[in-house]
Design goal:
Elements lengths: L10 H9 L8 E4 L3 E4 L21 E7 L1 H17 L2 E7 L5 H8 L4 E6 H11 L3 E9 L3 E4 L13 E5 L2 H13 L4 E2 L12 E3 L5 E5 L4 H4 L5 E4 L1 H6 L9 E2 L5 H5 L1 E7 L6 H10 L2 H10 L5 E2 L2
Parallel strand pairs: 3-4, 3-5, 8-11, 8-12
Antiparallel strand pairs: 1-2, 1-4, 5-14, 6-14, 6-15, 7-12, 7-13, 9-10
Helix pairs in contact: 2-9, 2-10
């Protein structure tokens, strides 16, 4: 039996967590030197101590939660590098921003990879969790994409713009809209900005606040939409098609790096250090740069 990094919770618990949002959380990909995808949930194997030594030829399993794109894809690219270090990667895909943090906090995951630091800090504050970053891996530029209106210049008075409804991502969307001259925010609002901080709105735009993952599905119902990079990728949008994207020198670019998150106190676990080293390897950097055409930018 392969030894695992953490105790995997019973399938019933995972199902109940997923049911909180109706999100699909059961897909598992096991990746080592090659990849094998299954549609079942947990393996049901119980795990030894986190730092237990490897057996004869066995790989130690690391269970990581991730958004399907680009995070799970990047993890799969890192799997061969990780296998050389003696670890097997078990990837659990999530399609929302809540369940992977709850699963990490409960011990169902060893780490997750889907969020930036401001969101992680906000989630901890709102939910009483104790999750911390182990490393920053990449940055995904926010983009403004056309819906019923084909360009920013064509936006009519009273146009509707879809933006994420969570605190950190809405602030980021507002900063991008401000950079395009569509609104003006109260001085100093920056990364804490909300719609209440809009002090100038010359086009009388209306904000349609939507859960971040759902925005691509609403784009035909709004004039334009501000979409998180990973959800834009999943929906088939290209950065080159965006009406505007965050500047590489913006405050967002220096703040919203996507991190490997772990439970507090596990930042220096050998398995986590191996995971970070694999994700920050030259092989994975080359994969990111050749695959995403500027939609994902390595931070190392």
């Amino acid at each position: 039996m392969r030894k695992t990094v953490c105790v995997i919770a019973a399938a019933l618990l995972v199902g109940s967590l997923a049911g909180c949002s109706g999100s699909k959380t059961g897909e598992t990909t096991t990746a080592a030197a090659g990849t094998e995808t299954t549609a079942d949930g947990n393996s049901g194997e119980s795990a030894p101590e986190t730092d237990a030594p490897k057996g004869d030829g066995d790989l130690i399993k690391i269970v990581v939660g991730a958004s399907p794109a680009p995070h799970a894809e990047i993890l799969k690219a890192a799997a061969p590098v990780l296998a050389e270090k003696g670890y097997e990667l078990d990837i659990k895909e999530y399609v929302d921003y809540i369940q992977p943090n709850l699963a990490l906090e409960s011990g169902d995951l060893d780490a997750n990879y889907f969020q930036h630091l401001p969101y992680l800090e906000s989630f901890n504050e709102e939910n009483g969790t104790k999750l911390v970053p182990a490393a920053s891996i990449h940055y995904e530029p926010f983009g403004i994409y056309a819906g019923k209106t084909g360009s920013l210049e064509e936006l009519a008075d009273g146009a509707t713009i879809a933006v994420p409804n969570d605190t950190t991502n809405e602030a980021r969307a507002l900063l991008l809209l401000e950079a395009q001259g569509l609104i003006k925010l109260k001085e100093g609002a920056d990364l804490t900005a909300t719609k209440n901080d809009i002090v100038e709105n010359p086009k009388n735009i209306k904000l349609y606040e939507v859960e971040a993952a759902q925005i691509p599905r609403t784009i035909e119902d709004v004039d334009i939409a501000v979409i998180n990079g990973n959800y834009a990728i999943e929906a088939g949008f290209k950065v080159s098609d965006a009406l505007a994207v965050e500047d590489s020198q913006s405050i967002a670019a220096s703040t919203y790096g996507n991190v490997i998150a772990v439970r507090e106190g596990h930042e220096n676990d050998e398995a986590i250090k191996a995971l970070v080293e694999a994700l920050q390897s030259n092989e994975v950097k080359a994969y990111i740069e050749s695959t995403y055409d500027g939609a994902v930018v390595p931070l190392y």
